[in-house]
Amino acid sequence: MARTNRRAPARGKRTAPRGTATSTRSSAPKRRFFDYPRSGFHGLHRWLPSWRFVLGTILAVGFLGAGAVVGAYAYTKVPDPADDTRAQTTTVYYANNADGSPGAVMGTFAAQKRQIVPYASLPEYVGQSVAAAEDKTFFTNNSGISITGMGRAFLNNLRGGATQGGSTLTQQYVERYYVDKTTTDYVGKFKETLLAIKIARQESKPDIMGRYLNTIYFGRDSYGIQAAAQAYFNVDAAALTREQAALLAGIIPSPNNWDPAKSPEKAEARWNIVLDSMEEEGWLTAAERAPMVFPSTAVYQRSDSMGGTNGYLLEMVLDELKLEPLAFTDDEIFRLGLKVVTTIEQPLQASAVDKATQFMAGTLPGMDGGIPNPRTRVSLSSVDPKDGAIVALYGGPDFLTDQRNTVTFDNVQPGSTFKPFTLIAGLEQGVGLNTRFSGRSPQEFGDWTVPNFSKAQFGNIDLVEATAQSVNTVYAQLNLQVGPEKTAEVAERAGVPAPVDTNPANVLGTQTLKPIDMVGAYATIASGGTRVDPYIVRTVINSDDSVAFEHKAPTERVFAQDVIADATYAMTQVVERGSGKTWVKPLDRPIAGKTGTTNDNKAAWFVGFTPNVVTEVSLSQIGEDGKSQESIEQIGSVKFVTGGTWPAFLWKSYMTDVFAQPQYAPVVDFPPRANVGSKPSPSASAPPTETAAPTEQPTEQAPAEVAVPSGLEGKLEADATATVVNAGLAANVVSEPSDTVTAGRVIRADPKGGTMLASGSPVTLVVSSGPKAQPTQQPPPQPTPTETPAAP
After folding, report:
1. Range with the poorest average pLDDT among 198-212, 273-287, 319-333, 489-503
2. Which residues are paired to 605 by β-bridges?
3. Which residues of 244-310 form beta strands (DSSP E)?
4. What are the tens digits of pLDDT across the range 664-699?
5. Among candidates 568, 620, 204, 215, which has minimal Cα distance to 379?
6. How far is it, in rounded angstroms, from Cα 368 to Cα 637?
7. Of 537, 572, 547, 200, which is closest to residue 388 (Cα–Cα)?
8. Mind listing the pLDDT tens digit for each residue in 723-733?
9. Cα-trace Rg, the chain
10. Share of the chain residues as helix, strand and coil, in percent rounded to the nearest 5
């Protein structure tokens, strides 16, 4: 019997019990359609997709994306070329009328300077210059796009860099010639990319370049290469030299900013870049490049639409439209058909132009034949303190003959119109209006000697009197007490552009500034302490009547209301009994203001305001070189032109018309004097309510009572004034004819001698002006501004 060898089961393997059938297929788990998380794996591998899945996904997405692009390309249709008639005129309007009806048209911005020329008529280097400046691959790139350029721009934008487009010249052509608007979103850029690819396959390079050259904006109101050649060089495009063509090509990205007349350094830098690129591409040899010099351009003559006084307003509108938050481009302004509603109120503007024009001609009623020097510069502007709206502005007689706007361009010293900033600084530190300083003149402060204007002498006077009479020595002491840097900081908060000088004499207006800055700063005061910045564009409406922009009223409070109430009260006394009394007080309503005159009478100001309108008038005179400033020459009987003479006179003449308008006719009172005390006022205290209970402690000690000096009658005006001031009272001098009292001597005092008054109270001295004039058959001449110089 044979032996049977039985093999032992392998180690580690399990054997099925005898008599039991085994089946591998039936024991395996059922496979899932989407095996994720992956079965049969543990840990991280269970959650990582297989390479087959990843590859399949990428291929699927790629095929789907490619199919989408192919489909989008197939359905992309080349639109009709943008007809020049699609470029709509942008219209600028005056502010809406008081009844809410639309204002009249002020002017227009239109893309009208265009003349189409065949590309074949142009020298070859014209197109090469543009390609060198905008897209060196243009003539060799048959796809019409640049993948690397778009990728580089995309990555830059993701990193937060300055926005880039990465567009080829063909894409720019599509944007201007077919789309007719600037596209910034990625979807729009994708559509333009597909259109550029299709255009590059359907149109020749000469067609694309020719249409591009006839479409783009070159600045100087010129669309297309022909208009640009005429505007910059007074030649036809076919006659452009290599140098001229390179200049025009270089300024395409920002023509108004890089115009050689405005920025010669930038224009020449761009010109060199274009020539370098042409040389690199073989379109220009080194031998041809070597003798080239930067070409001179013709003097730019603006279109007649910018003529007259409105040209200054339209230029301001154009500049503001290009600033944030509006940020329109020149091309958009001149082609989109916008409706721009300005803040300029037509009746006020007409009066400003009329009064300033008559003043320069010497025909303004009351001038008595005085004619200013033709080189006299007149600035007149009005601002609504509620929000900074410029309601009227005279910047010069004709923008086409002189584009220097006297309100926004001229830099002149403000003189004593700067003193209110020091007054506010003092009030914020608790220096009340009743604080007294010596008004003697001159006074020395170290190496700084300060005289009063016209060597005027004052006793110990308070800040109200010092403001009314614009006493230099008092304000010099106040500035040193509060700190010149504090005066500068207050001026900056009010709206004067930083940095403001911090020298001790800044209180006297030593720093030059533009009139628009001063009227804006005073508007901040007139607003009650809310920061106000002048502006001219109120609303911008798109061609489809949707609102593109609407100015928002300011809300930033920069000064406490009680501080501004006291500062305003002191400034009202300038009109009531100070340097603005002669001409402004007869308007018979609450008006605050300040005169200003610089050394050697090179500038003279009056800035005045009511609670609802602020107006500045300034005079200066430029030298024969057109740049330097010289003393304002005698005008009529006024030998020394100060702020209280012709500027106040012109202010009064213009404001008479303003107060005749319905919206400005009602008399509006200023907030009452708050009497800021010895403690510093908080930076933004709330105004007191009518029901507020009085505080138990006064904010400052009540002034002591003093007696009005006796024996003032018969004294000379100067002696009587000194007696009153030395007694601690304020002298208010008025004239009256008298047949019995010699001219220049006091007729009577009101109140009379011995009357007890609070220290600093006014005493009216009635001074004889001589016998009454005998009546004649001729009407008396119109009064002229007094020769008595106002304080600076």
Report:
1. 198-212
2. 596, 618
3. none
4. 999 999 999 999 864 444 443 333 333 333 333 332
5. 620
6. 8
7. 537
8. 777 677 777 77
9. 39
10. 35, 15, 50
